[in-house]
Amino acid sequence: MAKKTKETFKPLSLPLYDELVQLDHSLLNDELGWVTPTYLAENMVHTFRDYQESALRYFHYTMTNKVFEYRRINHALFNMATGSGKTDLMAGLILYLYQEHDYQNFLFIVNTNSVLNKTIDNLTNKQSNKYLYQPVIEIDGERLSIVKVDEFPKNQSKNTIYIKLASVQSVASDIFTQSENSMGAQDYARNKVAILGDEAHHYSASTKSEKEMEQSWEKAINTILNANEDNKLLEFTATIDLENKKVYEKYKDKVLYRYGLDRFIQDRYSKNVKRIQSSNTDEENMLNVVLLSEFRRRYAFELYGTYIKPVIMFKSQKIDASNEANNLFNQLIDKLTPDYILAFLERQAKVMSEDQSETLGFAYNYFLKNKEDLPQIVKEMKREFSPSRIINANDSDRGAGMLEKGQYEALNSLESPNNLYRVVFAVAKLTEGWDVLNLYDIVRISNYKDTKGDKKTTMAEAQLIGRGARYNPFELDGEKSYQRRFEDDSNPSLILETLHYHTINEPQYLKNLVAALDEMNLPTGEDKKNPLLDVKVKSKFKKTDVWKYGKLYYNQSIELSDDYYDGLTKYSLNNQEDIVINWLSSAKEVSYKADMVYEDYTDMHQVPVEIDRRFIEKAMNRLTFFHFDNLKKYMPLLNSRDEFLGEKWLNITNRTIYANIPMKMTSHDLTAQEKLRIVELYLAEVAQKIKKNFNSHRGTNKFIGYPVKDYVTDYKKRIPNYDTSKLFMDKNPQTVQRFVIDDDYFVYESAIINLTEKQLIDRIGERVQELKGHYSEVFLIRMDENMHRESAKSENMKLHEFNPNAKDVHFEGFQPDFILYLQNADFFLQVFIEPKGGKIEEQQWKEDLLMYINEHEAELAFEEEIDGVKIKGLKFYTINDGRNTMKQLARIAIDGEFRGLSI
């Protein structure tokens, strides 16, 4: 009999979960519309995300719905992706069970000390920045206390929640060896207890074994569960092995909620994941990752004015190998010089192939472009990656070994601006329970025997990659987001929203790793430039008069004289008001669902920062943008750096700098280094706006016609590569694919586009016949920037801001992705269309420009006296036409727009 392939297996049936999904959508559900209690939002730091609300709602059904009236669901499993906020959900469940069902006693168990210590901070330590509750918990006017205990008291106080947090090893030991001051089965029988079992995939040893173990963790947990009929066991894990028949039988009717890693990534709550595969030595890989990490930091700072601290983790299989790698890294940083880096870049250039890492290519180009600044860059690298900023986490988690004093706290606060660590060396300690958001690079050290990687090894690495994929909510334009903001194949996303796994180029190992990633449904691909594909204009379209004689219209831009940039206000910068910098922020997520996610500053206050000119000059020296030769490029009238500090420009000495810092701090607590960083953050914001708003050209209301046949041409383009979780990628609206489009209205034979763009093409295709009732010529043109990227023509094919009253001037121009070309005997209509995925706030100015064209049609001028040319723009098109863009098109093109009706 032929062996069954993985694809032939049907999805596993999970009766409880399937029943709850059905119940949640049933009109017969008497609790349809149940909402998350307000006391959770009022008393927790984080507002639940949609999927967390669903998990709580499903649990609520099992506790209250009449469907479960005669069934006792006392054991349930939440199967949720790494990084999806399982501890947040636990914290919410504690309050829910207390308030709605009178539970006061909670036992939290886990198998590792690192997770245990972190959860102690999460649930009981008010002083920790990881604490998940508000400082004061109040429900229905009653103040609530959360008390950490070793034993549940016999006499229990009102308005008190008791939490025992312990390793599963110690809890099992207490159950099997009755000793003084320990909790036995009878202690869990006295009052009802809710057990919260984290990393639950470790608690099935007896299930997997041929015979039941007398003193297994699993048996100890079941003893506690069965001690009181109202005791509950709620287990949480990202990796439950349901493919194991015995594990499946145990959990098939206990899985209460599922939120997989693929959905987590599809919902944009994580970083993207890319692999960089090379045959380099460990030392060469180390230099690569240092260059990439520093490029990330500088890219965020120089382009967006935001400070991120990208963390690198070097992963080894053996402690000896990790320690050797640590020494090798220190030696590398010690011998770094500008010449050493240039020589390395030149060597890499010689061996670079067409499919090299795209992201490394960005980093190489940056350092080559900034050769003159390499002495300063190397100086900063030596500081950023000095031994004092490296954590070696190779202690024994269960033995006597301990991290050095302060290193545990450092590992769990790597996002903090006060935490200067950039590098972590580790073996296995951080595979579970490590909660860090600004991990951007994981490097697999190759100098150990198992280069092929067995399934256990590669699965552990895949799980580590899953943990590292947590999204880093960096600040952009003064706001934070907890979801990815950029298009997934864009340069900013590759740099700021992607985790890179640097790995050895060994075929069998890579095959095993890719299989492990696929088993986890973790979408990844190699970070490389894929082959260029041809995109050709249809030969049939080339025979039309539109291609031969038609024109496409874009507004003309004019060159600005040097005299225009005569002060900082011309760059949309206010140089009169005081300056406010968000420094040591609480980084608390207020609302996961809000369109505009913002920081919670309720525990912050604003203090003046006392600085003198020395701070300003030192900060300017450290930021290469403020070297005078560079300033002169953007401020042609500037004569000196002293003049830049004057009233007409920065005017910083006549203004006060304020910093938002925690309430427990005062301005006197700020160190000189922190004050310098605050000044740097402000200057980075200034640099970003100057670069963004400096342009030698500005748009006008005059539109120029460019021949279609000169600009609608054949071109080449790459498709981003994903080799795992294909099913997920096929459903992701931002996944770029090649589509063949046979319909005559589309002028190219194919299109390399994402699913949102494909949907737009289809939606317009559905309206072609109706449009042909009004127009003899109907064509949709994909205006891909790749067509003329290397050509001087590219600047012609852009729209430029020409609204004199625009709030935030954007001189750079943009090219809408599509043009709908409509022509009849009376007039020609050109409609600009721009599809958008994800958040659109950062690019709202583009839509504003398109709407400005519509609203000021009478002010548009053309290069020659011609009649019957109409230029229009649509609102951004989003997936499933959520903004009714097609209705706007119908109003413009069909419903009489040109017979005097307003859109």
Walk me through the structure:
- There is one protein chain.
- With 903 residues, this protein is α/β, with parallel strands linked by helices.
- It has four domains: 15-259, 3-Layer(aba) Sandwich (Rossmann fold); 272-520, Rossmann fold, CATH 3.40.50; 533-559 and 698-894, no CATH class; 571-695, no CATH class.
- Helix content is 35%, strand content 18%.
- It contains 32 helices and 31 strands.
- Strands 3-4-5-2-6-7-1-8 form an eight-stranded mixed sheet, sandwiched between helices. A seven-stranded parallel sheet has the order 11-12-10-13-16-9-17.
- Strand 28 and strand 29 (828-833) form a beta hairpin.
- The protein starts with 14 loop residues before the first helix and ends in a 10-residue tail after the last helix.
Note the main attributes of this structure.
single chain; 903 residues; alpha/beta; Rossmann fold; 4 domains; 7-stranded parallel β-sheet; 35% helix; disordered N terminus; disordered C terminus; ATP binding; P-loop_NTPase
List the quaternary state of the chains: single chain
In CATH, the topology of the largest domain is named Rossmann fold
How many individual helices?
32
By CATH, the architecture of the largest domain is named 3-Layer(aba) Sandwich
**Based on DSSP secondary structure assignment, what is the total number of beta strands?**
31
Strand order of the largest sheet: 3-4-5-2-6-7-1-8
Q: Any idea what the shape is?
A: globular
Quickly count the domains.
Answer: 4
Fraction of helical residues: 25-40%
Distance between the termini: 66 Å
Q: What percent of residues are in strands?
A: 15-25%
CATH class division of the largest domain: Alpha Beta
Q: Return the average pLDDT rounded to an integer.
A: 82
Taking the sheet with the most strands, its summary is: 8 strands, mixed
- Gyration radius over CA: 30 Å
Counting helices, strands and paired strands, the structural category is alpha/beta
- State the low-pLDDT regions, or none: 1-9, 396-402, 585-602, 897-903
Keywords: Endonuclease, Hydrolase, Nuclease
Pfam families: ResIII
Protein name: Restriction endonuclease
GO molecular function, one term: endonuclease activity
